[in-house]
Amino acid sequence: MPLKPSEILQALDQKQAEFQDFQQNSLKILEKYRRALAKIAQYSEEKLTGLLADYPNPGARPLGCLGDSPHWVIASRLKWTSREQSLEWVRERLMGITTFAVDGSQIYPSKDISIPIALVQVGWFENPHLPLGSYDKDVRLEVLSPEDLKPQDQSTPMDRLVSMHRFRMEVERLIEFMVTHRHRSDCLVFFDGSLVATFAEKLDAKGRAFYVEQLLSLLRASEAERVPLIAYIDTSHACDLVQMLHCLEQLPEAPSLNDPMLLNAKMKWGDRTPLFRCDRQSESGHQAILSQYAEQAEAIAFTYLKAHEGPPVRLELPIWMVEAGLVEPVLDYVRGEVIIGGGYPYVIETADRIAVLQAEDRQVFFESSKNGLNKQRFTCAFLAK
Does residue 69 have a pLDDT over 80? Predict the structure, then answer.
């Protein structure tokens, strides 16, 4: 039976006191963390580094100057009176800069077909930001056979195997771009997601190893080819700075608090935080996924950028970019893409539109699959006569 709004409202009213208590407690904890942030933000990089030395995984460690703001906010001071002015600023920053992004989509196996078969498609968008408006966008697809979908561990769901194939194809295409644009600092590769595979900690050992291997390949390619890489996380639930404050100030546990919530109140559009190195412990408190990153375990930096009206987005990048002095121009490239996209990087948004598979695509795929498989069965039966 359908839900009745009146019954939902009645049930909510019965729990109203619990909701209010939770909200009040959360606000109190948030204020404690913000006061701690205001205090710690006055420390120099040297002092903060020294205080964190005794902690094995404090969440984050400072990288370079922490700025002169009492709230770890580095003001961009970017203001325009019209969209035309902001777009003119974008043209000045992005003209001749090639931005590149990849996204993927998949069709999972259907129960209507007895033979396991799936499809993965990745699409990409390469924009050199030239006056003539030239760009490159295309797709690549791969059909997954029963052999591709055969898990080494029977407990691995088939849908997860499809998602892993998609992830591999996305990373491979990003690396291809880096190889063909080696030593090009006038390029920026966007990765839609985090370089720190905390999500994989919940998987089995082979699943964790797969995602670590893929992300290591991406990080190593960026460093070897000297092509800038930005991981863009629009809605981040990371708690690296929260964890740092918890270590230093003995604050109460805050499971519902994350970095963007902590930072948002003091940030205006275009502002960013100082750079930090990610030194995250696992969600279970045991050995973190970064411990499996070999030489890249201490090579991932992050900052938060106010890119729209919502909480700040998280940007992750290889530390070699920090050492090469590329952070400031690259962050302007990101701001430019966000302005073009109206709050989200245009290059990522376009790659998503190129890659997405619609309901009619799924119908075409399964109809073609059935016809193709039936034809193979007929051929095998004929040859057997």
Answer: no
Q: What are phi and psi of 136, to 5 degrees?
A: -130, 125
Nearest-angstrom CA–CA distance, 301 and 240: 11
For residue 242, give the nearest of 47, 58, 50 by alpha carbon: 58
Structure tokens at 96: 């001749």
Angle between helices 5-14 and 16-40 (to 10 degrees): 60
H or E element, residue 105: strand 98-107
Q: What is the pLDDT of residue 15?
A: 79
What CA–CA distance (Å, rounded) separates 108 from 104? 13
CA distance 336 to 317: 17
Rounded to whole angstroms, the Cα distance separating 87 from 81 reads: 11
Q: Go through 249-274 and write b for each residue having 16 or more CB atoms within 10 A of its CB, e for each that does not.
A: eebeebeebbbbbbbeebbebbbbbb
Cα gap 293→319, rounded to integer Å: 14
Do residues 117 and 109 touch, judged by C-beta distance below 8 A?
A: yes
Q: For position 379, what pLDDT does the model report?
A: 41
Q: What is the dihedral of CA 131, 132, 133, 139, to 10 degrees?
A: -140
Taking a C-beta distance cutoff of 8 angstroms, is the pair 319, 304 a contact? no
In the chain, the amino acid numbered 195 is: L
pLDDT class for 108, splitting at 50, 70, 90?
very high
Q: What is the pTM of this model?
A: 0.91
**Residue 136 DSSP label:** E
- pLDDT at position 166 over 80: yes
d(CA 349, CA 260): 22
